């Protein structure tokens, strides 16, 4: 029988927040699009325009010849591992938040009476909290590297593309995704206390505690 009373308690409320913030971190990363634009004037006066996408999974590969008096420039930046790790963490968190919420709502009595359920819930929450911390740190490194590698000034200087005007838009959405990532770590780490209170460990300590006079 469906029972939504658990979502009036911290145990259920935290799962709702975890779902929302995991989805926001997930969507900010996968929906981000940017372009690295080159407008170059060759020696014969012709103008060449080149646009290269910067998007998930952020494996940037650029190779262009016949620019600036037949010069050739290449750019390779692979931050797909960091992006995939962050993506998978968000996806697993969304699926787990939905799954455990269904358990809370449909079989809460079984969850509380069967000691295995709280232990498994606690373990999964620990794993996802660790994933969010390491995934957010890795993704912060990836975004920082992506910004540096695709910086127009750096590209123009290191590749001697004096005949080109290079531009790109900002990385605000990816920066927001990092913030959401660390907020997710805080939510999952904070939830450990509420899940811990459902385990036999906490209940045994509560039963052993001396009662007040």
Helical stretch count?
A: 7
Distance between the termini: 40 Å
Oligomer: single chain
Number of domains: 1
Outline, from the CA principal axes?
rod-shaped
Beta-strand percentage?
15-25%
Look at the structure and give the mean pLDDT: 86
Largest sheet: 3 strands, antiparallel
Number of beta-strand segments:
5
Give the % helix: 55-70%
Task: Report on the architecture of this protein.
- By secondary structure, the protein is an alpha+beta fold.
- The chain has one domain (5-34, 80-205).
- Helices cover 61% and strands 18% of the residues.
- The strands form two sheets. It has a three-stranded antiparallel β-sheet with strand order 2-1-5, covered by helices on one side. It has a two-stranded antiparallel sheet with strand order 3-4.
- Strand 1 and strand 2 form a beta hairpin.
- The longest helix has 34 residues, at 116-149.
- It is rod-shaped and about 80 Å long.
Could you provide a short overview of the structure?
It contains 7 helices and 5 strands.
Topology of helices and strands:
Elements: H1 10-30, E1 33-41, E2 47-55, E3 59-67, E4 71-78, H2 80-106, H3 108-113, H4 116-149, H5 152-158, E5 164-167, H6 172-196, H7 200-208
Antiparallel strand pairs: 1-2, 1-5, 3-4
């Amino acid at each position: 029988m469906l029972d939504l009373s658990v979502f009036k308690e911290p145990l259920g409320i935290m799962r709702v927040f975890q779902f929302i913030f995991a989805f926001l971190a997930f969507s900010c990363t996968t929906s981000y699009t940017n372009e690295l634009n080159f407008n170059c004037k060759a020696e014969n006066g012709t103008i060449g325009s080149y646009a290269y996408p910067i998007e998930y999974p952020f494996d940037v590969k650029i190779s262009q010849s016949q620019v600036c008096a037949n010069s050739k420039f290449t750019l390779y930046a692979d931050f797909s591992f960091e992006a995939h790790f962050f993506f998978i963490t968000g996806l697993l968190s969304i699926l787990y938040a939905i799954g455990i919420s269904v358990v809370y709502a449909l079989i809460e009595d079984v969850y509380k009476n069967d000691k295995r359920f709280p232990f498994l819930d606690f373990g999964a929450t620990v794993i996802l909290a660790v994933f969010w911390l390491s995934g957010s740190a890795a993704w912060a490194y990836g975004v920082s590297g992506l910004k540096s590698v695709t910086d127009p000034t750096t590209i123009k200087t290191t590749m001697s593309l004096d005949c080109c005007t290079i531009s790109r838009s900002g990385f605000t959405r990816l920066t927001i995704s990092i913030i959401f990532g660390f907020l997710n770590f805080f939510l999952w780490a904070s939830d450990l206390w509420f899940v811990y209170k459902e385990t036999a460990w906490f209940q045994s300590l509560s039963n052993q505690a001396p009662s007040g006079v």
